[in-house]
Amino acid sequence: MSEHQSTYEPKSAFERWLDSRLPIVRFSADLMSFPTPRNLNYWYTFGGILAFCLMVQIITGIVLAMHYDTSSHGAFMSVQREIMRDVNFGWLIRGLHANGASMFFLAVYLHILRGIYYGSYKAPREVLWWLGCVIYVLMMATAFMGYVLPWGQMSFWGAKVITNLLGAFPVVGGTITTLLWGGFSVGGPTLNRFFSLHYLLPFVIAGVVALHIWALHVPGNNNPTGVEVKGKQDTVPFHPYYTVKDLFAIMVFVILFAAVVFFIPDAFEKVDNNIEANPLVTPPHIVPEWYLLPFYAILRAIPDKLSGVLALAGAIGMLFILPFLDQNKVKSMRYRPAARLYFFIWIAFCLILGWCGSQEPQGTVIPGPAGPVIIDYGINSVTWLARVSTAYYFAYFLIITPLLAMTEKTLPVPDSLFTPVLAKSAAPAE
Amino acid sequence: MANSVAKAGADGPDDAGRRDFLYLATGAVGVAGVAAVAWPLIDQLNPAADTLALASIEYDLTKIALGSEVTIAWRKQPVFIRHRTPDEIARARADDHAPMKDPATDESRVKPGHAEWLIILASCTHLGCVPTFKGGDYGGWACPCHGSVYDTSGRIRKGPAPKNLYLFPYTFLSDTKVKLG
Q1: Measured between alpha carbons, how far apart are the two ends of chain A, in Å?
Q2: Which chain B residue's Cα is nearest to A182?
Q3: ipTM exceeding 0.90?
Q4: In which domain, by residue range, is B62 found?
Q5: Which domains does chain A have, with CATH numbers?
């Protein structure tokens, strides 16, 4: 907010008194009057939608914690009986919370894709981008631990598999997993600490969100042209222009959210999670929640444990180093047709990876024989499709993006961010 | 006044040396203090005494028919006790010198004179799922999670798992009774 002159003028004696002691009204007023590029489209409403999601998760989560039993003996029944059947509106509050996680990730993925498409990670917004990546990682940790709490079969085995990832590290792996579990396997102590951290992390996320917004307000918003704001003529105050636009988007989002909660509340739930955790039997087909499937597919694609875990971490790490990989000065892919093409292919491969993660590793892609076996699996297997997709996933970041940044011939970029807007509004008059 | 200024100036270098030492010493004590407080906060995550105290258990092997297995919990970890058929043993021994990720002879994975009893941790060495028997191409176990395949000796033959299914301490109290742990 450093470059934004405060326009707040205390109107009453009380406001003047308060302003010289705790300028909180000035702070809020400046947030609302923040000069925002006038050409932001609906892809820019996901920030507001995500703030809404975080609020929903925190409120419903605090309520659920009032009825939840954290012991490994009582957790399953407290969710299945108390919350889902006995507590007034418990089914609704849990429906909002459990499906809210999916909605949260849907929004965050669109928010991230928006950021990549319009080059929002480039100077001067790298710190803003990195804080976003940190929030994403915290979200995954929180969602994972939340998924463990109902203490069903999927909860238990998901916890076991993910915590065992850390066991892949040589020498210290075993010590780390024992420390994490508080035992020799996932059990009661694990459940209790996950509950504690699941309650804590959303507030950490809220803190990083505050930093994220702070880092947004220093350089100001990027916009669909990627051309920086050049003066007052390029901006409108955040309120009422974008408060209204964000609210409208939130309403549309809420309709979708409500449709899921009321009509298909179990759509994202695996039936096995309605069986209480049993440490002696692994369900025949365990898969994580949809939002983690691409990473799960990458993990399985690599035939070596440690390398698989490193690839999984690296896949997320790619987002962090993206600002270094793409040095092209043109931000928006509107003016980078080649970058846009490879980006859309990358999205397609992410979706394919998601599908691969939901299938059994030896399943076939095209119905029929699995084909000749190379490194444990036939070339027509889900695993090989995942391997090819994983290769593209990393090649997109490590090879294609840096090369395109140097070699791509970009389209002419407009002088000002609102030239294209004016051109568009002038068109119907012709 | 002038005297004291002159004095401070004269002692300057000495004082600076002393101050540096005090800063370092204070810093070192501070770090030690933080570490001393941090350790209990980290170590509390480790298994508590009641978890560690889980004693060994005994199991009556007569309950397991030839060619079948049980999965039981030892220290809250799943354990396989498999009553192997002569076929399974022969198959495992025939493969003793086949190329493997984690080479081991079948003999080294059972107790002498008790080759029919394979007693191993039932956690896939990849990410800890419990493998199911009669899966895969080696007559042994296959892991439902990420497709690791083990043979009839519990050795890793295919897939992402790095190690054979782990052995753990146990002793035969008699031909029909085993003590785990």
Answers
A1: 41
A2: B47
A3: no
A4: 51-180
A5: 34-279 (1.20.810.10), 287-413 (1.10.287.980)
